[in-house]
Each structure stands twice: as structure tokens, then as C-alpha cells.
Design a protein that fits this description.
By secondary structure, the protein is an alpha+beta fold. It contains nine helices and 19 strands. Helices cover about 20% and strands about 30% of the residues.
Length: about 400
């Protein structure tokens, strides 16, 4: 899954090419997403289906998808993550891609090879589009009449999909699948009116918050049409990404043409890259940006160390923050800012074990145990797995 920094930067905005689409999850499954029967298809093995995805040569398509995600984030934490995007204004693609972490979104997608892709979010009468056309990447917010622009330094190179793409998500999952993953072929399905096989990936280990991943693969051309991420706790999918309509014909050239509308505010993305300060000097610094929490992280100049525990689906990162203040001290500090205490309250349950005491930050996917002595254990694993890791590595 490793890519160089420039490729990752372009991939945040490019619509997938070799296997193109848009990430989606639907709270109430619409007919176009649902399996309308199980088509009778020739039998295939998991290896054959993986090879079919890898061999797909589809580089041109257009269509629509629905995006909805249910990570189970606490309201305060969800607001924090929504505000952690780039500082380039409402037209910055990073801000919009970050919104895929929650809610339901309708999108239109088009792709024509590695140099031309377009992704449009539809919200009533308003639209937001990301357009990659050769050396240029544009973001346009019709409601605010704001434009974001950046030169694409990776023009001509193979494109990857954005964080929201079911095809890119499928590729990343397959790359990450190793000896800790059981891979099989599930029931056939129909997605966007097309017959599909379903590749099913399940953790072999216990303790993961993810029960399985299902990838619906077009039976004819090998393009992933839908990705479903299912939780061990049950309920609706964490993510369910798929097309509602798809056409593999070449989109017209004017689909990717873009000119900033008259009177629109235009921001050059290079001046507002996240983490670089930019002209406005804004930069996301995690907990350090919250009054009163600097002591928990050791401040911006902290000497935190990270250690990876376990492997595969049960991987846990142990972060020694070098904190100068414990959770209990902050909680009992009468002079601590209310924002800091609100954040602590949002973390959820108090937990204890051989490691001591701490707080659990819980979502449907990623959980984090913040111990009272300034250590953080985080991973897509259950509370019990985190406590066991903390006890064994205190």
C-alpha cells in the first residue's frame, strides 16, 4: 500500500482509473444497491477472481454512486475530524473528501485514462466537483462560488482513486490481505444492473472490529462495483461503497473541461497545503490545538515513540506520548479549560487493568485506549484486545 508522497497527494483527488468509482455506504439500501437476485454465473476460485480484478483494463467509465459511512464517531470527535481538513477554504478537495467519513452522499463519477477524471458531489441544487484534467486539478463549490486549483505534478502517471473510491479501496484491501486473512468467493450479486461475483475477506484472528469485507466484482470486466465493510458488532455496514449506475463507454472530452466562473474566488492549493502553514498560517496539530490538552501529548515538541504490536487485522499501535500530565490530573484540574474536559467526556468509558487506569475512545472501527500514564493503544480492534495489549506492554 506504500506510495510516494506525490502519488498519495494526487490520489486524494483523482477518480480511480484502472478500477474506477466512488466509495459509498448506504444507511437505507436503495434498490440499485441491493442484490436483485443471485445471477447464475460460472464458478470461480478466489485466486481467479483476484486475478480478474488485477487484469482489468477498464480506464473509461461514467456513472453514479451513493456514499454513506457509519463509523459510530462521538459527536464532538466527528466535529473535530470534520475540521481537520486542509485550510484552503470550502473548495479544497481535502475538506470534501474528509466528509466521506460520515453521512450519506450522492456522487457522479467519470474517468478517461490516467489524466482525466471527475468526481461530483450532489447536494440538492448545489454541487461540488473535483476535476483532474492533465496538469490541472480543480475543486469547485457551486454554492459558495469558490474555486480551488493546483498543478498536478504527477500528470501522465497511473492514477489511484481517492479515499472514497470502492475500486481503490478494493485494491488497498487486497494489497493488505496476507496470511492473517481468509479469502473466499461468496454469493453472486447484481450491482447497478450488472452481474457480479463477490470476493469475501475475513480476519483469521480474533479481536478485530471488522467481521468481513465483501467486494462485488463485475463478472465481465473485473471492475469492483461495490465494497462493503461489515462490523463484528453487527448492524448496518460500516461502509457500503457501490455504483447505482455505470457505463463503460468513453466520456465526452468536455466532461473534464473546467474554467473558473466569473466572479468566483480562486485559491491556489499550493499556498494552503495542510501541514505546511500556508499563507494563512493554519495547520492541524491534533490534540495540541485543544486548550489544556498540550500536557497529554507532551506538546508540539513531544518525544513520543510508536511501537507496532501484533500483525494483520489485530495490529495495535502503542504510542508513548511523553505526556507531562495524566488524564486523572486533567480531569481533576479546576483550572482546566472546559474544551479539554468536554473532549475527555467524549472519550467514553473509564477502563482499568494491570496497566492501571485509562479512557476508551470508541468507534465501530478504530478504538483507542488512552492510559493515565500517557500511553495510547490504538487499532481496529476491540476494547478487550486493547486492554490485553496494555496489560502485556505496561
Amino acid at each position: 500500500m506504500a506510495t510516494n508522497a506525490k502519488t498519495r497527494k494526487a490520489a486524494r483527488y483523482a477518480v480511480p482509473v484502472a478500477v474506477a468509482g466512488v466509495a459509498a455506504a448506504t444507511v437505507a439500501m436503495v434498490p440499485a444497491f441491493a442484490n436483485s437476485g443471485s445471477p447464475d454465473l460460472p464458478g470461480v476460485t478466489a485466486q481467479q477472481l483476484i486475478e480478474k480484478i488485477a487484469a482489468s483494463e477498464v480506464q473509461q467509465l461514467s456513472g453514479s454512486a451513493r456514499i454513506s459511512t457509519d463509523l459510530g464517531l462521538p459527536s464532538l470527535a466527528s466535529g473535530l475530524l470534520g475540521g481537520a481538513g486542509g485550510a484552503g477554504g470550502s473548495a479544497n478537495p481535502e475538506d470534501r473528501i474528509a466528509q466521506l467519513a460520515s453521512g450519506t452522499h450522492t456522487v457522479r463519477v467519470a474517468a478517461d485514462g490516467p489524466d482525466r477524471q471527475k468526481l461530483t458531489f450532489v447536494d440538492g441544487k448545489n454541487e461540488y466537483s473535483v476535476v483532474h484534467n492533465g496538469a490541472d486539478v480543480w475543486g469547485y463549490d457551486s454554492k459558495a462560488n469558490e474555486v480551488w486549483h493546483e498543478k498536478n505534478q504527477d500528470a501522465g502517471k497511473p492514477a489511484e482513486g481517492p479515499a472514497g473510491s470502492p475500486q481503490q479501496l478494493a485494491q488497498d484491501i487486497l494489497k493488505a490481505a496476507g496470511p492473517t486473512t481468509d479469502v473466499s468467493v461468496g454469493d453472486t450479486a447484481q450491482v447497478a444492473g450488472r452481474d457480479a461475483y463477490q470476493l469475501v475477506l475475513k480476519p483469521k484472528q480474533s479481536g478485530s472490529t471488522i467481521a468481513s469485507v465483501k467486494i462485488a466484482v463485475d463478472a465481465k470486466n473485473g471492475v469492483p462495483l461495490r465494497v462493503q465493510l461489515l462490523a463484528t458488532e453487527g448492524g448496518k455496514p460500516i461502509v457500503d461503497a457501490g455504483f447505482t449506475k455505470v457505463d463503460f463507454a468513453k466520456p465526452s472530452a468536455d466532461t473534464f473541461a473546467f474554467t473558473a466562473p466569473k466572479g468566483a474566488k480562486v485559491t491556489e492549493g499550493a499556498d494552503h497545503a495542510p501541514g505546511k502553514g500556508g499563507k494563512d498560517g493554519k495547520e492541524w496539530k491534533g490534540l495540541d490545538s485543544f486548550p489544556g490538552l498540550e500536557g497529554l501529548t507532551g506538546g508540539a515538541g513531544g518525544k513520543g515513540e510508536t511501537k507496532v504490536l501484533g500483525e494483520g487485522w489485530a495490529t495495535i499501535a502503542r504510542i508513548d506520548t511523553g505526556a507531562g500530565k495524566s488524564l486523572k490530573e486533567l480531569e481533576n484540574d479546576k483550572n482546566a479549560p472546559k474544551e479539554a474536559k468536554q473532549f475527555l467526556s467524549s472519550l467514553g468509558d473509564k477502563v482499568s487493568g494491570k496497566f492501571g487506569e485509562g479512557r476508551l475512545f470508541k468507534t465501530r472501527v478504530v478504538n483507542a485506549l488512552i492510559t493515565d500514564d500517557g500511553k495510547v493503544y490504538v487499532g481496529a480492534v476491540t476494547k478487550d484486545a486493547l486492554v490485553q495489549a496494555a496489560d502485556a506492554n505496561k
